[in-house]
C-alpha cells in the first residue's frame, strides 16, 4: 500500500475530492476474459449511495459510474476484461460548497482537516477534500471488479453495533440486512436502532458503530508469510476506511481472555478430504494464511466529527474559536461503511488469490 | 508490505526459520551518517530474548547479532551508517528439533502449520519454521536501527491485560515496566499476573494478552492519504506480529459507543503556537496523518497453540489424531510481543518520516 | 514499476486505449503548494499532438486535458497542488475504428497485437488498444507535473538520427529543434530528413530513429544503489516507450571500444567548490547516482509496423494471410517520441529527487 | 525495483560491501517444492569467480555460499524450497584494504566513489564499498535459484565485442564459450582477445566490452503492459549491473536504420500450432510481452576506472590531485559480467512467469 494505491497484483488507485469535478479509480492487474455489465458495478455503488434514507447524508449523488478502459463491449453492454487497466469515473453532481463557508478557516475537532493542513500546508476544506467518505465510492466500484476475480467467494457485511445497541447473534439473519436502512442482521436491534438514531440525528449529533464482514468459500492458502499476511493486509485495508479506529480478525480482542485450550480451533477429518474445523476463533486465518474457513473481520467506525454542538477549536491563524458543522452529514457513518468493508475484503482476497496463484502455480 | 519485506523508503526484509542455521534481516534505505554501536542493537534484542524468567520459553538463545554491512567502523566500535543496506545476522544456537518429533506429522490446533501446508504443500515443522516467534528477533534489531532515524521520538510498550487481569490506568508507571517480567506498568496487576501465570504455566496451558505501544514526540504530518495512512500501516505492522488478532488506535473499539461530542478531541491554542488537544481519543492520528499528539496503538495477542492438553486434530494424511505439545514454549507469548510492538512502531514511524520528508521537502 | 504504474514516491498510473472513450492518468505523490495552470500541461501535450505536420499521423485529436483532482483553483485558473493525487483525463475524439476492420482478425508483423493475444487470449484490435502510442499523451501530461517538482532542471530532447541520416553534432542548435517538424537540432540534417521522410511516407513505409534527451542542472546525489539506480530507472522508463529497442547513457555502446584512460571523465576543482568534470562520457551518472553533470540518455525507436506493403502473417485462427495497414499512421514514430522521452526523464528525476530528499533529509 | 531489491513476485534483495565481513542476498517469493543442491548455486558462482585466469582480478575469493533459510534438507544435501525466503551468505575472505590506502581520500575519475560521497556525505572507500562488482556474486547466486523457477528456459551469455575486436556471428559456437577465458563464442576472436587483453593488462589499462544474453524456450505472454514490460524490466536489470552504459533488445540501435518492411518479423503458421516467426529483429518481445521467440538482450560494459595511468582528479577536500590505482583489478570487467547478465535474465523471467501466472491463471 502506498499513497493512493493498494494491492500488489490486483491494484487499485483512487483519486478525487468530495467537492471537485469527479472521483475516479484505476483497477490494474485484473485478469482478462472476465465478463460483467456496467450495471453490476452500478448496483454495488447504489448500495453505498447516500440519501437513500433519513439516516444518511442528504447529499444527492447519482454516482453514475463510467467505465473508460480495460474492457471490450460486445455492443450489447456485455463487457469483457482485456487484462489492461480499468479506468472508472464518477462525476460529482451535488456539491454545495457554500455549506462549508463557515468552517473554511476553522478546524473541526476530530476531523482530518487539521492533520492535512499540518502535513501539506494547504487544504481543500470543501467537504473534507480527499479525506471525505466520498472517496469510498471508488472502493465499492473497485470491489465489484474484484468480485469477478473470486466468483465463488461470498462476501457479506453487517452492522453489528451502533452506540449502546449491540445485535443478538442468535437472531442473525443475512436476509434481514437488506430489509433495514442499517445493514443490521438482527431485526429486533434494527428496530431499536431506528428510534435511537432518530434521536441522535435530531440532536445534530453522531454515533459510532461496529461492522462485521464475512467471506465464505475462500480458498485455503491465500496470504504470504510475515509482512504479506492476509490478515495484515485486511487490517491495513479496513483501517484505511475513513473513521475506522480498530480492526479485529476472528475472536479479535476477546483472545486476550482465552486460554490456549479455549482459543485453538480443533480439527476433524472433513467428509470431502478437507480439514473440518470445529470452531472459528481464528477467523479463517492462521499464520497469515487462509485455512478454508470463513474469513471474519470486524472494524470500529467512530462518529463523524461534523456535528451541530459547538466544540472548542482553533482556526488557521491559531486563534481559538468554536466550531459547529451545518453541512449535510451522516449521523452514523458506520452504516455506509458496510459496503465499503465488503469491497475492501473483495479487493484483498482478489489480490491474494492472484499472488498465491503466481507463486504457487 | 509484500511477502517478507515491509516499509517503503525505510525497508526491512527478514529471513530465517526457528530451527534453521540462522535468522537475518536487511534494513534498506536507512539514512547515512547516523551513529550507533552494535551494543545498542544487542540491548534491544536482550529485552526480547527468551529464557529470562520462568514466564517465557526456556530456549536459551544468546541472540548475538552480527552487523554485516552498511556501516563503517571507526575502529573503536562506533558505527556510522553509509546509506547502503544494513545486513543483520543471528545464528540459532539452541535448536532442539527432537522436541518436535511427535508433532512432525500432526497439525497443532490453532497453529499456522496446517495453513502453511495448505499453502505450500510442504512445511518446516521444526518449531514452526518461518511462523515461529523467533522471526521477531529480527524485527527488534531492525527497530533499533529505525530508532536512529527518529531520535526524538520516545516509544514505549506495556502489557495492559493478561487473561482476566487488566491493569488500572490510574496506577500506570512507565518505570514499573522494567521491574517485572511482564512489561506491566501497574505494580499491583503485575503481582497478580505472577501468581496467575504460574498457574497457567504449571497446567501446561497458555493465555492471551493486550499490549499498548505509545510513541511520544511524533512530528505532525506523518502518513499519506487513503492507502498509506499512518494508522493503516501501523495496523498492518502490528497485525503481522505472530498471534495478533486485533489492533486499535486511540480509543479503538470504544468509539463505537461514543457520540461525536464525546469522541472529538477539542483543540486550544498551545503556548508554543502548536495546536493543543484537550484529549487523545484519536490516538494521535486524524485522517491517517499524525497530529503531534502521542500515537497510541493497542493489539491483542492470542494464547499460543502449543499446550500440553491433548486437542483433537488431524495429521498430514488426514487421519484424526490427538495433539499435545511438549516443546519449550511461552505460557503468554504476549509478554515478549511488547518489544516487538515497540520495534514495529519505530519502523513504521521511521518509514513515514522519510516518506513525508521526501514528498514535503 | 509495475503493470501500469511507475515511480516510487512520485508515481504515475495511466489507463486507456487508443479507441476507447478516454485515456487518463493519476499522478500521485506530487508535493503540495506547487502552482501551475492547466495551459502549462496543455502546452506540453500540444508539442506531442499528432496531425501537426504531414510527417505524423493525420488523426486529429485536440488532446484537451481535464484536471480532475489534487489541486485548488484560485478562481482565475491558478492551480495549487494539495499533495493529493492529480487525476488527468483526455477524451478520445477522432477514433475511426473502421480503419482497422481489415486487420481485426490478423496480426500485423512487428506489432504487439499478437503478443497481447498470446498473453491475454483477447485483444482490443482497434488501433492497437493499450499498446497504441496514444497512451504516451498521458506521460507527457504527467511529465508536465513532474517538471514542477524539479523547476531548475532543464530537460530537452532532440531527434539525432532518422534512418540513414545522422545529425552533425558540430551544428547542434537547441533553438533549431522547434523550427522543424522533426525536433532535429541540426538544420542541415532537418532539411535532408524532410525529403527523405516524404519518400518513406509516400511509399507507405516507415523508418526508425534515435532520440537524445539531456537534463541540465540535475542536483548531484539522485539515484539509489544497485536496483534503484538513476540510470536503471531511466533505462526502464525509456524502454517502456512504444517501439523503443535500445537505451544508452552518456557514451553508451561506444564505451565498448574505449580504454579506461579514454572513458574516465577527469575532474578538476570547480570555481564554485563543486567538482568540475572535463568530459561527460558518464552521461552524468556514476554508480547509478547523478554527479551534477548533465544527464544524457539516448534511445532507439523502431519503425512502426503499420505499413502499406503486404507482409506475411497469420490470423487469429492460425491461418496464413498477408497483412497491410491502411489506417492513419506515423511514417516515423520516433518524431513524436521526443516529447515523450523528455517527459519520462522529468518523471524519473522528480521521483528520485523525492526519494533522495526522503532518505537524505 | 527499489534501492537494493528487485522483482515483484520473485524478489531479490542484496547487501554487503566489497571489503566488509560478508555479502548476502534474500530471495523472496520463490515457489515451494523446487529441489536443488547447494552445489548448483556454487557452480554458478564458480563461473563468475575472480582469479581464474590472468584476465580477471587476482583477488582470491572462494565465494563459498551458505544457504541459511527457505529450504528443507533431506539429510543428503537435497534441498526443497518451502516458499519462504531463501537467505544466502558469502563471507569475504581476501580483502586487502591497504591496497586502497592511497586512494582513500581521492576520487578515481570514472568511479562511483565521488557520486556516493556527493549523495551520502560518507563513503566506504575500501574496494568501492557497495559499488564494487563484488555485489554481483549475490546476483549470480539468486540467478541460480531463479533458474529453478523456469526449468525449461535455456539462458546463455557470451562476450561479443571487446575494444576493437568484434566476433564474427558466422562462427558463433555456444560450446566455445566455456573453452576460453572470455566467454567468447567465436574461437578466432577469442584468440585475438587473448593477445589484445594481455597488452591492455600489461599497460595497467582497461577496456570495454559488449555482452549478449539469449534466453530460449521462453513461454509466450510474459511481461505486463506499459511500465511492467518484459524488456523494460530487462533494461533496468541489465543497466543495474556495474559499469553498464547501454542496453539493447533484439536488433537494438540498428532499428533506427531499418524500414518497417525490414524490421517487421514476418509470421507463418508453425507446425505445432504456434506462430513461427521468420526472423527475430524484435528479440522475442513485442509490446513488452514475450512472443515465444528467443529473448535476446545486449549490454555494453565500460572499462574499469581502476587503471595505473595517473588521471587528474580531486580529493575529498576539493584539492586537485593525480590518481592511479594499484589494487588488483579486471582489465576487462565485461568478462565477468557475462554470468551476471545471465543471472539477471533468469531473475527477470522468473519474476514475470510468476506475475503472468498470477494474473492469467
Automatic annotation (TrEMBL), chains A, B, C, D:
Keyword terms, alphabetized: Amino-acid biosynthesis, Aromatic amino acid biosynthesis, FAD, Flavoprotein, FMN, Lyase, NADP
Gene3D superfamilies: Chorismate synthase AroC
Cofactor: FMNH2
Signal peptide: none
PANTHER family to which the protein is assigned, alphabetical: CHORISMATE SYNTHASE
Function per UniProt: This reaction introduces a second double bond into the aromatic ring system.
Family membership noted in the UniProt record: Belongs to the chorismate synthase family.
Protein name, as recorded: Chorismate synthase
Gene this chain is encoded by: aroC
Amino acid at each position: 500500500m502506498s499513497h493512493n494505491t493498494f494491492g500488489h497484483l490486483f491494484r487499485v488507485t483512487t483519486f478525487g475530492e468530495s467537492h471537485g469535478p469527479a472521483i475516479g479509480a484505476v483497477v490494474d492487474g485484473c485478469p482478462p476474459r472476465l465478463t460483467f455489465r456496467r450495471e453490476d458495478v452500478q448496483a454495488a455503488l447504489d448500495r453505498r449511495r447516500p440519501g437513500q434514507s433519513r439516516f444518511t447524508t442528504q447529499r444527492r449523488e447519482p454516482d453514475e459510474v463510467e467505465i473508460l478502459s480495460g474492457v471490450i463491449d460486445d455492443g450489447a453492454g456485455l463487457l469483457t476484461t482485456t487484462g489492461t487497466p480499468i479506468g472508472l469515473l464518477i462525476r460529482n453532481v451535488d456539491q454545495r460548497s457554500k455549506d462549508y463557508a463557515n468552517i473554511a478557516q476553522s478546524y473541526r475537532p476530530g476531523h482530518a482537516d487539521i492533520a492535512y493542513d499540518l502535513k501539506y500546508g494547504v487544504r481543500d476544506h470543501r467537504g473534507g477534500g480527499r479525506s471525505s467518505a466520498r472517496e469510498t465510492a471508488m472502493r465499492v466500484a473497485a470491489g465489484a471488479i474484484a468480485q469477478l476475480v473470486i466468483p465463488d467467494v461470498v462476501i457479506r457485511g453487517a452492522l453489528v453495533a451502533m452506540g449502546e445497541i449491540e445485535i443478538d447473534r442468535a437472531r442473525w439473519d443475512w436476509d434481514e440486512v437488506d430489509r433495514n436502512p442499517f445493514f443490521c442482521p438482527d431485526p429486533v436491534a434494527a428496530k431499536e436502532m431506528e428510534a435511537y438514531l432518530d434521536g441522535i440525528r435530531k440532536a445534530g449529533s453522531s454515533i459510532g458503530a461496529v461492522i462485521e464482514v464475512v467471506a465464505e468459500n475462500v480458498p485455503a492458502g491465500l496470504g504470504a508469510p510475515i509482512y504479506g499476511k492476509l490478515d495484515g493486509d485486511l487490517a491495513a485495508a479496513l483501517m484505511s476506511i475513513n473513521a475506522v479506529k480498530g480492526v479485529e480478525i476472528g475472536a479479535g480482542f476477546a483472545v486476550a481472555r482465552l486460554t490456549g485450550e479455549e482459543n485453538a480451533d480443533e480439527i476433524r477429518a472433513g467428509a470431502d478430504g478437507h480439514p473440518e474445523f470445529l470452531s472459528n476463533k481464528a477467523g479463517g486465518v492462521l499464520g497469515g494464511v487462509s485455512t478454508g474457513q470463513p474469513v471474519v473481520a470486524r472494524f470500529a467506525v467512530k462518529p463523524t466529527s461534523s456535528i451541530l454542538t459547538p466544540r472548542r477549536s482553533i482556526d488557521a491563524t491559531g486563534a481559538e474559536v468554536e466550531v459547529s458543522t451545518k453541512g449535510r452529514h451522516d449521523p452514523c457513518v458506520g452504516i455506509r461503511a458496510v459496503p465499503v468493508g465488503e469491497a475492501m475484503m473483495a479487493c484483498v482476497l482478489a489480490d491474494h488469490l492472484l499472488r498465491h496463484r503466481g507463486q504457487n502455480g
